[in-house]
Amino acid sequence: MKDDLKPSTTAVDTSRRDFIKKSTAIAGAAGIMSMVPDAIRNAAWAAGSDAPEKTEVKIGFIPLTDCASVVIASVMGFDKKYGIKITPTKEASWAAVRDKLVNGELDASHVLYGLIYGVQLGIGGPKKDMAVLMTLNNNGQAITLSKQLHDKGVKDGDSLAALIKKEPREYTFAQTFPTGTHAMWLNYWLASHGVNPLTEVKNIAVPPPQMVANMRVGNMDGYCVGEPWNARAIRDKIGFTGVTTQDIWKDHPEKVLGTTAEFVQKYPNTARAMVMAILEASQFIDTLSNRSKVADIIKDKSYVNTDFDSIEDRMLGQYDNGIGKKWQDANYMKFYNDGAVNFPYLSDGMWFLTQHKRWGMLKEHPDYLAVAKKVNQIELYKQAAAQVKVPVPKDPMRSAKLIDGVTWDPKNPKAYADGFKIKA
Questions:
Q1: What are the distances in angstroms from CA 317 to CA 45, 227, 328?
Q2: Which residues pair with 88 in a beta bridge?
Q3: Does 100 have pLDDT greater than 90?
Q4: Which of 122, 234, 236, 293 is the most exposed place for a label (fewest CB within 10 A)?
């Protein structure tokens, strides 16, 4: 895009510029282009009509460390490079993000992977065709347990499970959205220690920035959330880290850049431009020498609204669990990792569906692969990645061994979903 703005005397460049001008002029392009079949539209894009159909986009976010790539794309001006203006829009809860994506108040959002799939299948709310444009980050979430549990001898999952069985009462654990990532990490971790998250504890949803305040007043025994709200609980001396999510699944998928399928159909060039801008922001953030600057930007009241140290330490992999253990974590929150983070693997989306089925949110097995192929915009992502020279993996599937020793194999999702001892 930036090269197209330079003066050029070649006929090719002139015709390319004319093509872009004409494309932009035709009734705003967006209305017309939305009626053009995908194959023709993609061919036109390849031929040079890559001007964004919509130049100003509202991208929602929740106050979390992993909103950084959306914020940095805007603050550092990576968006301008690709002909768009990103306005990051701070939202109060994941339910608000869902509603505003569905009704079009937001063009896209920093959003929980499983939330997009939940909306796609109409789990517990509106049903609408959705799109995952890219993955925003891996790792960097945690489960925080209360100081009161520690006073009872709890240090980890095994000691928590022992206490729950020894001293039965209503233990309350919070996650951030029923179909979201944190709910799945919390459920998976509890189950891996023999605790049924549906029957042996009370499971509630609380917006991320409200977790610390709720634990402070004794409303919960534990919660799963993204940073900095785990580090903040330790700084405020009200809780400790029971487990990090990278210890549940190394390099797990987490937030995505999500939108509706309708948005991608109407504004494919804008969607690609958003991906390109955020890919560049992701590269910037994953240069560790930039992370202190990033932490300083996102700590602002407009974004995460917390202290610098609560953000920076864990962004740099400097972990302290609050009960005597300190370590340098090689699997800290990653935003780029040579492109491995951002590719929207089909298998990642499929995994969340297996957990939705496991916990009774889906009554029947969906067509796991077909749903993932519909939601995850692999071709669009590849086109954007090629423009900014980001490598893409050869295989849209990946497998992993999780904390319980069970290997996620996307070749047989039904057997995987049905194979857990603890389930709905």
A1: 40, 12, 5
A2: 59
A3: yes
A4: 122
